[in-house]
Amino acid sequence: MNWLMWRLYRKTILVSALALAVYVALLAVTGLQVSNSYKQAVANGTLSTFTIPMIVSALSYLGLVFPILLGIFWGAPLLSKEYEDGTTKIVWTQSLTRRSWLSRKLLWILAATVLYGAVLSVSANWWIQAAPTLYQDRMQPLQFTTQGLMPLMGSLFAVAVGASMGAVTRRIMPALAWTLCIIVGLQFCVWFLVRNHYQTPITYTETVLLKQTESRVANKNGQYPSAGSWILSHTNSGAESCTQTRLANTGQTCVINTKYVYQPAERFWKFQIIEAILYTVLTAVALVATYSAVLRRDA
After folding, report:
1. Which residues, listed in sequence order, are joined to residue 67 by a DSSP beta bridge?
2. What pTM did the predictor assign?
């Protein structure tokens, strides 16, 4: 069975491995360049002007694509192609049971996915630490999804969803389409509806009294957001009408009220663990749906 699985999927796995190798090589080259440039800027005292090229910063976002591709090209055809080609009718008339056949296929593909996702996670985590300016932004929604445990857990979930859609639809193209929609749709739901509720956000408020020649903080509550915090909302009332012209003409005091609602950067790993548990549960649900569809439906 193992040899058969290798023969069936060796081209897909080799192409995927080549794509991963190219991506890791790009991360290694750019990561070393950014790290050396940052150290040189620190040594020369030019850290205030240190910037990272946009194309280099965008490189990490490619990590969002790999789990989706695994779901589409590994997970979705895993069972749908067998159904579409009719090979299931031949296999299930032999001594191999449906449960054993399905378990071996899933075990094989999930083991490969764990290895693939682990390489993605390790390489992305190394790259993000090349410079503090990159590391500080890892709590932001897109960066968060490409760091820590997310590449691994996202890959497992994507492949499980692809397998379940293949078992339900029994056709390759519908399975591909449903897999893509579910993965992308769930990602957006997690980013914008779920993640910010893992823990109660912190609120910081500040009231500033501004005169023509001076300003002072009259009142503040909470802790000001640290570097790298995920700002959920920021309001700054009173600043629009508080201009130097108005202050000079009236001699009045302007009142500026500032409010931040945010998730601090220190919660990164706590959020990673919570979201990893969430993806584990969703992966288990997808696998249960796969077994249910294969074992209960007619061949």
Report:
1. none
2. 0.84
